[in-house]
Amino acid sequence: MEETISLQDILKVIKKRLFLIVSLTIISVIIASVVSYFILTPVYQASTQILVNEQKSETESIQSQEIQANLQLINTYNEIIKSPVILDKVIERLDLNQTTPQLSEQISVSNVEESQVISISVEDEQYFEAVNIANTIAEVFQEEIPVLMNANNVTILSPAVHLENPSHVKPNELMNIAIATMIGLLVGVGLAFLREYLDTTIKTEQDVEELLGIPIIGIVSPIPEKELNKRPYSPNSELSRSKSRREKLV
Q1: Which of 87, 85, 81, 82 is CA-nearest to residue 99?
Q2: Domain C-terminal end among 153, 169, 185
Q3: Do 17 and 30 have their domain in common?
């Protein structure tokens, strides 16, 4: 015989274990807030854009096939920007205390679809350092790409600029708190149903009805503790109390 759980049963379990669910959710939110605001180091991002195109003579017209070929080279340029040929010179110029693979992990290169504009983004714990690295990468690329790819028309469209109050991109505190809230709710609800499933004790008359499948016709009310502490009635004690009262009257 398969046991089915109705929506009413689910709501009953949630209501019964509401304190557990709410407690775990609050704990998750507190932990996420503390980690996001006080433990994790903020990471800043700076970006620069460059345009790469082959220089044409005055008599040579730009054909659509040539533009398409330039677009296909964008992926190659993206790889060159993150290669040791460029990054080694960037590390040398800025005297960075990191290796080429470490610097490469901080850099992301992208381009808008059907565009020859390349965007270089650098993430670093210090905003001014991210700006310097982004601009230096663009400068070194502009110097080296004519030799590497015979592309002698590289233009820096928008260099990264220093801001007085930059906003960090990592961590995203609100996102972390929202994720922690969902995790806390899921864990709380899961533990609530697990405890309900493992708890086989009978506590209420409803548990008896569900277990036996028959209605309850009577309930034995609990006896108050003060009633239990009373001494039982005794004729001899009552007789002695009456005798004592008569002696006082005489």
Answers
A1: 87
A2: 169
A3: yes
For residue range 42-81, what is the model confidence (pLDDT) as tens digits?
Answer: 999 999 999 877 555 444 445 556 666 666 777 888 889 9
d(CA 215, CA 122): 71
Which token pair is 53? 């195109």
pTM reported for the whole predicted model: 0.70
Domain-ending residue, one of 169, 187, 210 = 169
* Helix (H) or strand (E) run with residue 32 in it: helix 18-34
User: What's the mean pLDDT in 192-200?
Assistant: 83
Measured N-to-C along each axis, helices 173-198 and 18-34 cross at an angle, to the nearest 10 degrees, of 150
Residues 187 and 97 in one domain: no
State the residue for tokens 């040579």.
60
120: containing domain: 50-169
* Cβ atoms of residues 122 and 134 within 8 Å: yes
Total structural domains within the chain: 2
pLDDT of residue 133: 96
Shared-domain flag, residues 64 and 144 = yes
For residue 232, what pLDDT is reported? 56
> Residue 198: what pLDDT?
83
Residues 6+ apart with CB under 8 A from 196: 13, 16, 17
